[in-house]
Specification:
The protein is an alpha/beta fold. It has 8 helices and 7 strands, in the order H-E-H-E-H-E-H-E-H-H-E-E-H-E-H. The chain has a 5-stranded mixed beta sheet, with helices on both faces.
Length: 206
């Protein structure tokens, strides 16, 4: 869904995966023939200005390790949420309600020479390809981002704006903990409490 949104705005997208032969990857390539395919994660990183980490959290560190030195000095947008792999809907987040370290911070710790920015994680991917919600005037849906590197965060914010979202700078990367909890709230509302999938967050100001 993120790739579709980027392609709509004329942004070239290069993808890779831990297994390029997986059914999910093949389906994505069939649906979006404009995608460029890199034979390795490292090659995809080298070809891109931004790298989106869109994998289950339990394989996030394994995935970025495959990039090797290619991520040094690069911007990594962390889309993951550390949901319990066995029972995500009821067990919740791996770090739990009393946790103090976000998943994004654990990724940053593993990649000290990479600029990690949290983003695109607080709503379902179903909404990523079309941020328009008729009936709300000029209001745009909010996209929360967090990061410690100001220039990297601004670059991600500019991309978010280009895709049609209102950028909400949530502060340092440590704020990712709250963004991951916000994502879990979205999941619970969408799946367990009948809100459905077609809703997003927004900031309404007086």
């Amino acid at each position: 869904a993120i790739a579709r949104s980027l392609l709509k705005q004329g942004v070239a997208v290069t993808v890779s995966a831990r297994n390029l032969d997986s059914p999910k990857t093949k389906e994505a390539l069939r649906e979006l023939p404009e995608l460029k395919v890199a034979t390795s994660i490292a090659d995809a990183v080298r070809a891109s200005d931004f790298t989106f980490l869109c994998v289950p959290f339990e394989v996030a560190l394994e995935t970025v390790a495959q990039a090797g030195d290619a991520l040094k000095g690069k911007i990594l947008i962390d889309v993951t949420n550390p949901l319990d792999a066995v029972d995500p809907l009821t067990a919740g987040l791996v770090h739990g309600p009393t946790g103090r370290l976000s998943g994004a911070e654990s990724i940053q710790a593993a990649l000290p020479e990479t600029f990690v920015v949290k983003g695109f994680n607080t709503i379902g991917l179903f909404n990523m390809s079309d941020p328009t919600f008729p009936g709300y005037g000029a209001a745009k849906p909010a996209m929360f981002i967090a990061g410690d590197h100001a220039a990297a965060k601004k670059s991600v914010g500019d991309l978010v704006s280009k895709l049609g979202w209102e950028v909400v700078d949530s502060g340092p990367l440590s704020t990712s903990l709250q963004l991951e909890h916000l994502a879990f709230l979205w999941i619970k509302l969408a799946v367990l409490h009948g809100a459905g999938l077609n809703f997003v967050w927004a900031l309404l100001r007086r």
